[in-house]
Amino acid sequence: MNGFQPYEIIAPRLGSAGENIVIIADHASNHVPDGIDLGVAPDVMMQHVAIDIGVADVTRVLCETIGCGAVLARVSRLVIDFNREENAPGLIPLTSDGIAVPGNAGADPEARLAAYYRPYHDAVTETLADMRNPFILSLHSFTPQLATRPNEARPWDIGILYNRDDRAARIAIPLLAKAGLHVGDQLPYAGTLLNATMNRHAEEPGRPYLGVEMRQDHVSHPQGAVRMAEILAPVVLACRNSLA
Predict the structure, then answer these.
(1) Which residues are in coiled coils (predicted)?
(2) By C-alpha distance, which of 71, 90, 77, 32 is closest to 51?
(3) How many CA atoms are closer than 13 Å to the CA of 12, on its beta-carbon side?
(4) What is d(CA 46, CA 230) in angstroms, rounded to the nearest whole number?
(5) Helix, strand, coil in percent for the chain, rounding step 5
(6) In sequence order, what DSSP letters do the residues of 205-244 get, joined into one string?
(7) Could you give the domains of the chain?
(8) Is residue 238 within 8 Å of 189, Cβ to Cβ?
């Protein structure tokens, strides 16, 4: 794998308002490492099936604005999905929203786990272990329209997800609504069904966290990313101040 590092770490700014906040961005990249051919058209790699559009930009603005840290994935979710358990269906997807990924048909799961998945999660573990009372912001984005569900409305500007621990959600939802956003509580899908990274790094060890899904057409351009970061910053700080 030529020493490729499947994650990027942004160190928190000591003395800043967000020095004990860490953003975890499982799907921040559409990069396909050397030696892997997914067998999909180049334009597919720019779509929601390959990357959480806007997440990297919002993460960087938040890190600059409030001084928080971050761990960002540097591998496309079509190569391996970091927000799945190791034995979960869809860990190495054969299809995604109706798009076939033929290059994954013969993939060796153990090789990809060893090269990308485990180093990424080890980096998250180490980053959190090095911090005192960390608060986690899990940042994702969702497409406003699924190709496989054309009649399904997705009108929310932002969704808040959680599994058993809804403490931050209960704080964040009214604040986001007050900021003028149409907020989905466990929408566009529920964290009880898809919350692997936060189950592992937040809920199991008892760390407070906020799970956020941003609507992609709101954050697919620089101005939108800045606006979303401006809205999220005081909300995340309020959750941290109450819980961490």
Answers:
(1) none
(2) 77
(3) 22
(4) 25
(5) 35, 15, 50
(6) TT--EEEEEEEHHHHSSHHHHHHHHHHHHHHHHHHHHHH-
(7) 7-243 (3.40.630.40)
(8) no
Cβ neighbors of 101 (< 8 A, separation 6 or more) are 38, 39, 40, 78, 93, 94, 95
Two tokens, residue 133: 């009372």
Give the chain's end-to-end CA distance (angstroms, integer): 38
> Tens of pLDDT along 69-116?
999 999 999 999 999 999 999 999 999 999 999 999 989 999 999 999
Residue for token digits 């806007």?
54
- DSSP states of 146-166 as a string? -TT-TT-----SEEEE-SS--
Q: What is the largest CA-CA distance in the chain?
A: 49
**Tokens 């009108």 identify what position?**
155
pLDDT digits (tens, 9 = 90+) for 232-243: 999 999 999 999
